[in-house]
Structure formats: C-alpha cells, structure tokens
Amino acid sequence: MTQFKFTYVDFDKKNVTGTLEAQDRESALKILSEKSEYVTDLKEIKKHVFLFSQNVRNEELMIFTQQLATVIAAGVPFKRALDIIAGDIDNPFFKSIVMDISSGVAEGKPISEMLVKYPHIFSRLYQSMTEAGETGGKLPDILKRLAGYMENAEVMRNKVKAALFYPSAVIVISLLISVFIFLFGVKQFEGIYKGLNAQLPFITGFNWHS
Fold first, then answer.
1. φ, ψ dihedrals at 155, nearest 5°
2. CATH number of the domain where residue 139 is located
3. Which residues span the domain enclosing 101?
4. What is the mean pLDDT of the chain?
5. 25 and 105 share a domain?
6. Among residues 82, 110, 113, 137, which one has the fewest Cβ atoms lying within 10 Å of its Cβ?
7. What pLDDT digit, counting tens, does each position of 40-56 carry?
C-alpha cells in the first residue's frame, strides 16, 4: 500500500486535506472521487529511510502516553493532540509513527487499530487497554494508568539493574585480582623460593607453569 496526501473540494465547497492509503494513484483518485466534487492535489508520501536506530525507548513511550492523556483530557481533538505531541518528539522514527497514527485517525480509524500496526512499539497490553478506553469513553484515564504502569516498571527495572551491578562488579574485580596474582604475584614468590633453594608448593607451581 502507498500513502498519499490529498486536498479536495467537498460537496459543500470546502477544502479538505488529509492522507490515505491506496494501491496506486488511480485507486486513490477513485476513493476520493466518491466523497468529493473534485481533487485539487494528490501527492505520494515518500517513506523515510532511517540511517539511525529504529527503536523507541521505554522512557519516550511513557512521556508520549503521559502527554497524550493530558492533552486529550484538556479537550483537544485527538488528531490535533497527536500532531502537537509529534512536533515535540526528537526521535525521527517515533515521530513518523505518531504522524502515521494521526493520519489514520483523520481517516476515521480508531487509535487502537493504528497501534496494531506497530506491535514492536505498543505491547498487547497497551493495545488492549487503549481499545477498552475508546470503547468505554475513558481514554484519558486509561492512558494515565498506562503511563503510571510504565513509570513503575521503569523504576523497578532500574532497581534491578542497580541490584545486579554490585555483585557483578565484585565478581569482575575478584577475577582481575586473581589473574593479577597468578601473572605477577606467583612469579615473585617463585624468585623468593629459588633464593631459599626451595620449591613452590605443588598447586602454586602447577598453576603458574601450566
């Protein structure tokens, strides 16, 4: 499917601008002709090729969810809210996803339907709760809960990382000390034992000469 940006004059003589997906230009014109008097502009939207990471960090998704909940709760129309938030997103990959969701919403698609297109970004839980919020008319509340859940999960994740860091650091330092002793310490003891015309203990000598 190809995405097109269009402008047409509807039957009330008003200009309408938006985006749609179609197989080709002819298919797009056919779709628009059914709901417009005539099309004034139709351009294919070129897909961006990202040279950098195509990932969305948990923190970015959490902030997006918080902002969306706040803006919608303030009474801003959903598409307008998405466009406002997209303007503040620094990650070009995530921004393109939000803009695509906005385009889908402009076409009358539910946001939950648009989220399904990006399962690697929006989890099944995120999709299900958003759908429930839309159905029940409580989307801002649901989004706030999702943001709170993600914030708690991030805090817990950081605590686990911090808890694992200390023992890991102790193990690494212990291994480095052991290697240092075997490489340098045993050699020093070997020189002392030779000066005393004595031999290193079997285990020490075995580890050093092997």
1. -60, -45
2. 1.20.81.30
3. 58-156
4. 80
5. no
6. 137
7. 888 887 665 444 456 88
